[in-house]
Amino acid sequence: MRITSILVAAILATGAAAQTITSPDGNVKLDFSLQKGKPTYQLTYKGKDVVKPSHLGLELAKDKHASKGKNETDLIDGFVVQSTNTSTFDETWKPVWGETATIRNHYNELEVNLSQPATERRITIRFRVYDDGMGLRYEFPQQKTLNYFLIKEERTEFAMAGDHIAWWLPGDYDTQEQETQETRLSGIRERFNTAVNWENSSVAVFSPTGVQTSLQMKTDDGLYINIHEAACIDYATMHLEMVDAQTKNLSEKLGGGSNAYTPDPTPSAYPLPKPFTFVSHLTPDATGLKGAMQTPCKTPWRTVIVSDDARDMLSSNLILNLNEPCKIEDTSWIHPVKYCGVWWEMIVGKSAWNYTDEFPSIKLDQIDWNKVKPNGRHAANNEKVKRYIDFAAKNGLDEVLVEGWNVGWEDWANMWKRDVFDFVTPYPDFDIKMLNEYAHSKGVKLLMHHETSSSTQNYERHMEEAYNLMNKYGYDAVKSGYVGDIIPRGDHHYSQSMNNHYLYCIQEAAKHHVMVNAHEAVRPTGLCRTWPNLVGNESARGTEYEAFGGSRPDHTVILPFTRLQGGPMDFTPGILETQLSTWSDNPNYVHTTIAGQLALYLTMYSPLQMAADLPENYEKYDDAFQFIRDVAVDWDDSKYLEAEPADYITVARKAKGTDNWFVGGKCDENGHLSVVKLDFLDKGRKYDCTIYADAKDAHYQSNPKAYTITRKTVKKGDTLKLKQAPGGGFAVSIIAK
Amino acid sequence: MRITSILVAAILATGAAAQTITSPDGNVKLDFSLQKGKPTYQLTYKGKDVVKPSHLGLELAKDKHASKGKNETDLIDGFVVQSTNTSTFDETWKPVWGETATIRNHYNELEVNLSQPATERRITIRFRVYDDGMGLRYEFPQQKTLNYFLIKEERTEFAMAGDHIAWWLPGDYDTQEQETQETRLSGIRERFNTAVNWENSSVAVFSPTGVQTSLQMKTDDGLYINIHEAACIDYATMHLEMVDAQTKNLSEKLGGGSNAYTPDPTPSAYPLPKPFTFVSHLTPDATGLKGAMQTPCKTPWRTVIVSDDARDMLSSNLILNLNEPCKIEDTSWIHPVKYCGVWWEMIVGKSAWNYTDEFPSIKLDQIDWNKVKPNGRHAANNEKVKRYIDFAAKNGLDEVLVEGWNVGWEDWANMWKRDVFDFVTPYPDFDIKMLNEYAHSKGVKLLMHHETSSSTQNYERHMEEAYNLMNKYGYDAVKSGYVGDIIPRGDHHYSQSMNNHYLYCIQEAAKHHVMVNAHEAVRPTGLCRTWPNLVGNESARGTEYEAFGGSRPDHTVILPFTRLQGGPMDFTPGILETQLSTWSDNPNYVHTTIAGQLALYLTMYSPLQMAADLPENYEKYDDAFQFIRDVAVDWDDSKYLEAEPADYITVARKAKGTDNWFVGGKCDENGHLSVVKLDFLDKGRKYDCTIYADAKDAHYQSNPKAYTITRKTVKKGDTLKLKQAPGGGFAVSIIAK
Predict the structure, then answer these.
(1) Count of CB atoms within 10 A of residue B118's CB?
(2) CB neighbours (10 Å) of residue B370?
């Protein structure tokens, strides 16, 4: 509910247009002004600079249709303030699923209505200031002088106050699966080339100081600052390009590898901002343009989360709050999911998605699948799937993912092949009717898989039939995938059109009561508030990379600060047989201890959690697996007990609709001693506590499978001292008696 | 049926690999050889050079996925002949609709199997030689060394033997609606810039010597030569780039206007062929590449039609014959259509497609159409549509097209607006149920209209619902449109992906028993043989241009030699009120006489013919309109009596299933005297003959509406002397007694 609304009279003198609003608790202060006609803002937290004076605006592209006489004018300068409004908003809403049962959305808002007299155009910049940061966006009212426009580049600046430590991914139009880099801002340029995995053919970087969001930073005076975006709808995904002393112009051309993107050679006409300033850089379409807009419209929110306590970064709901309320009326069919699946053994290389090796390539309409020669390595077969269904039923898992069930995997990726899958035809050894009936008879559902190979037109052509098939056989969730280059060629995973596609899939799925877990899709920006059937995304480096060479032990204590700000990740934890060579030819190992794997079910929040290892591996570690059986996936409350980016995270969560708590702690390669005070328990009540911890000599490399399981009774006020091994962690279940 | 097949033993010596085949009548001779490893062909007609020795091949693009170590090799040279096969084919097939009841497909074939030892790749070049020309195509068998490839450019050469006269359109990736130019080959470069309508924002030309196909030529020694293509499926449309003395490299960069395309700056590594040689130039995708292929696959046929009699160019079925037989099993729902429609008055500017002028732009999901303010100019309203239905019923027309029936026309074109139409929501003044029932009660159908605004993704998303709506209300044909730039941005109207889209629409329509008449789509290449529900295309400058400034009088005596080679055109003839200012504010006039308009129903063959003028105009000229009422639109036989490109065409056609004949003659701005011998009539039979002719003093500019109607009885052997005025023509109905 909107509590107050104050109309500030039109201020026509451009120099005098300063406006200030603060957060409800007064700690966050935002100043807006016009500097020589340029919209400018700055942000402080408890008096410390968070964003120094930074300009706002957009460069527009000259459209070919506008080329006959009409020149396009940028929305950068020449503005005057027409009016400003401030207001306060405070409401509490209930997410369909989440870390807490309710979420408070409390902010002060400043609406600045600007006009550009030379063009007779009007825009609005809206700021919302929360106790933990701020969001700002551009709004373009419908008007005769601004109906359709093309964005050459958004020029939103974030001027940092110093040479902060930053955890960053190389800015890239197509992949987010790199490892996070930790450097000072001044070190980004030097680190950049080693940070890019040039072996990944999807790499499409654009500048040696370009980074992705969400970007987590820490200042020398103890502030944690995060820059990301919220509600990215029908707009290109934002990256940040940092200006340093060596920056010649935006965007800089990369010298690098053969996959490097060659940007528009026309440099911006505007002067470079000062060093340590990030400037927004949108994902282009195939022609290099950044967006096609029609008024009335608005950009996503550009968000800055800030606190002097790292735990606040993790408990922040700023991004969810900046999204629109749920648009699905009946959400009764949306539910958290704990699942296993026919997947890890293919990732590790022991079995295959494809059914035959007989042909150098295939065309779906030219093959009689009943006559082809099986390769004997096809995992998604009736026998194996039944085994997984039995396993899920026995262990209380809700669903079983089966990848490789449908024809087309023989030559599916990176071939520029449009008609790669039809999403409805099973391989001959996958009896879709029998297997679904078998699963349902045991109280389990199958989880659908739609790998699109990024052939988006092909997916959209088959989507309705594909969802109809799901409805027919009783699937209620789909894992979709976008491996490889986008078809149509020239488009990118994070462009305006692709962001529209991902949301289209979610909306069409909702019509069919289907939950979506999209892999390789764009990084989330809180859209799961509006479309809670978006129960998961990958959009980062998941557990699969442990089979591809490994990820650093601190990877999972960075992701909650960065990738998870926008929404849950289908990280696929739970690899208890961390040495892959014990059961396969894969020489790699998982870079955590077993206890660390258990901790991820708590530290990596998601309503969709996989038990990703093989049933036979879980049988080997059945006592540890008990925690995966027990742990909840939806919560009434969550308390971040300690946190430091790239070092450690400890969280306690109260299982939905119960009095039971689960506590998890995860650390980096240095180990960590956690002291967990159980002051969140109910007073006077006793609890059965089971502690899954690293053994004394555990180590993610040398001794990852050494864990202890301790049971005791606990009560409010007790303290648990839990030593995490290097690359380790712990998991605790606290069940009310 | 394949009559003979001769296996020629493998010829390994590259120099000795010459092969010759001739047409069944021996007049057309094709020689194939390898010249220093380059596939080379030449073509003669009655001993005269048609195509001098010309190379064949494709340049391949280096894929980013192949960039790691693997270099791509062109399919241009280094070939040896593995084997050759010759065979003869002779069959007669029945088109679902057409100019004749049966079509003979009789050719000699040469199959040349080549290998490139350096790459271990194999390709086949297949030649089919007919009495009236030849077709050749590349075939790529499935093989381990050639699975997927990207085409940088196809390099099929057509070396002309002299400085022929050519009728050409500027080569363009997005429009075919320019006027035809007549120059010597050596004059193309000089004429080019004046030939391009730079005012048309769709212009996307690529070279100052680039031309479109079908390209009609005439040699100084009396040969007529036509170059086009057949069966263009999932492949980019071919243009021709001419090498002249000034050609520096292929493709040349155009200096021209702001809409000019900037081609790949990397020139071909291969030497330029000799002057007067055309080299194929495919339409690129957004990244500049020309095609993504997967073996087994083949290119479209590259066709050369040749004769020393211009009439043979018009009666040729070579392009239809090179297409695959009909793939629709039950064709009973496909039928010729004579129609009128709510269209011309909008083209002329008297009424409007859109319903309201209230908003600077609209979003479909944000408007309550029942509350908006009508502009009072919306043509597709119940009252007017009923009037057209009454008119159709009274005059024996089968269907009524209604454009502007559905919401979205307020801001539909060239705005890069993706969600521009939904194809199912009528404006409030168009009662879709009532109007269809009203039409059906009078034995008439409505003809659906789907303007896509070239937002192809939006169209595909709504297509199933749109066709379902048609089925629900009893529509059986759709006119679709592709005005404006293709969305996704960067794509072109004639690219591989768009050609795939057009065919997808036709195939999906066939599932719904819907006939398709696609405007602004790619120029046809005979696909209507395979998919006879493709009953029409625009793909050239239609009658609408008479309201936009006019077309030259010779336009319609060029189109049958060029545009119509690939399939019928929905030219929309029949404008009897040639002075538009008599009923509107439009100052333009139609550049034919009234008799010339009637002639077009015969000279511009199509199974779909519009009576394009307004009912009230037809009432003014009801005696002339009688011919439009009477004329058939499907034929058992057609005889081209005289023809000369850009001068005149006279044809006699026998109406399907009857003994009645209709004869039409059309000429250019110079007038023409036709002497029509009625030796095609049945011997001993009498016929009622009605002659619609230009009056003595008729002239398309000064006196276009002067016509005479003469009735007499005729018999076989009679002769009609028919004088056509400048820009005039005649139409004759000959009804068996």
Answers:
(1) 11
(2) 7
ipTM: 0.94
At A420, the amino acid letter reads: V
Structure token pair of residue A469 = 């098939």
**What tens digit of pLDDT does each residue of B695-725 get?**
999 999 999 999 999 999 999 999 999 999 9
What the block records as the tokens of A594 is 């077993």
Residues from chain A that touch B489, judged by Cβ atoms under 8 A, are: 285-287, 289, 292
User: How many angstroms separate the CA atoms of A624 and A692, rounded?
Assistant: 7
User: Which of B67, B140, B361 to mutate to probe the A interface, most A CBs <10 Å?
Assistant: B361
Q: What is the pTM of this model?
A: 0.95
Residue A387 sits at φ, ψ, to 5 deg, of -60, -40
| Cβ contacts of B69 within 8 Å, gap of 6 or more | none
Tokens representing B577 are 């009120």
Query: Prior bond to B726 cis, omega within 30?
Result: no
Nearest-angstrom CA–CA distance, A408 and A422: 8
Which residue among B144, B360, B490 sits closest to A286, beta carbon to beta carbon? B490
Q: What is the pLDDT at residue B697?
A: 97
Length of chain A as a residue count: 737
For the stretch B41-84, pLDDT in tens is 999 999 999 999 999 999 999 766 554 445 578 999 999 999 99
Q: Which of A626, A601, A615 has its CA nearest to residue A543?
A: A601
What is the DSSP code (8-state) at residue A484?
S
- Residue B708 neighbours by CB distance under 10 Å: 13
- For B294, the closest of A415, A460, A504 (CB atoms) is A415
Which stretches of chain A drop beneath a pLDDT of 70?
Answer: 1-17, 63-71, 255-267
DSSP string, A148-194: EEEEEEE--EEE-SS--EEEE-B-BSS---SPPEEEEGGGHHHHHHH
Q: Across the interface, do A287 and B148 touch by the CB < 8 Å criterion?
A: no
Predicted local distance difference test score (pLDDT) of residue B261: 47
Closest among B182, B168, B213, B220 to B49, alpha carbons compared: B220
**Angle (deg, nearest 10), helices A456-473 and A432-441:** 50
Distance between CA A311 and CA A642 in Å, rounded? 6
The reply to whether residue B411 touches residue A142, judged by beta carbons under 8 angstroms, is no
CA distance B730 to B714: 17
Residue of chain B minimizing CA distance to A200: B65
Q: Within a 10 A sphere around the Cβ of B679, how many other Cβ atoms? A: 13
> Closest Cα to residue A559, out of A242, A233, A199, A176?
A176
C-alpha–C-alpha distance, residues A451 and A75, integer Å: 40
Residue B696, Cβ density class (10 Å: 0-12 exposed, 13-18 middle, ≥19 buried): exposed
pLDDT digits 0-9 by tens, B582-625: 999 999 999 999 999 999 999 999 999 999 999 999 999 999 99
Active site residue B544: yes
Q: What whole-number distance in Å separates Cα of residue B647 and Cα of residue B560?
A: 12
Inter-CA distances, A514 with A331, A466, A502, A675, B259, Å: 11, 11, 14, 42, 45
CA angle B428, B432, B438 (to 5 degrees): 125
Q: Please enumerate in sequence order all residues whose Cβ is within 8 A of that of A498, keeping only pairs 6 or more positions apart, or say none.
A: A456, A486, A491, A492, A522
Asked if residue A692 lies in contact with residue A707, where contact means CB atoms within 8 angstroms, the answer is: yes
Strand partners of residue B734: B661, B689
Q: What is the mean pLDDT of residues B280-306?
A: 96
Q: Angle formed by the axes of helices B432-441 and B382-394, to 10°?
A: 20
Residues 6+ apart with CB under 8 A from B89: B1, B2, B3, B105, B106, B107, B108, B109, B128
- CA-CA distance, B416 to B453, in Å (whole number)? 9
First to last CA, chain B: 40
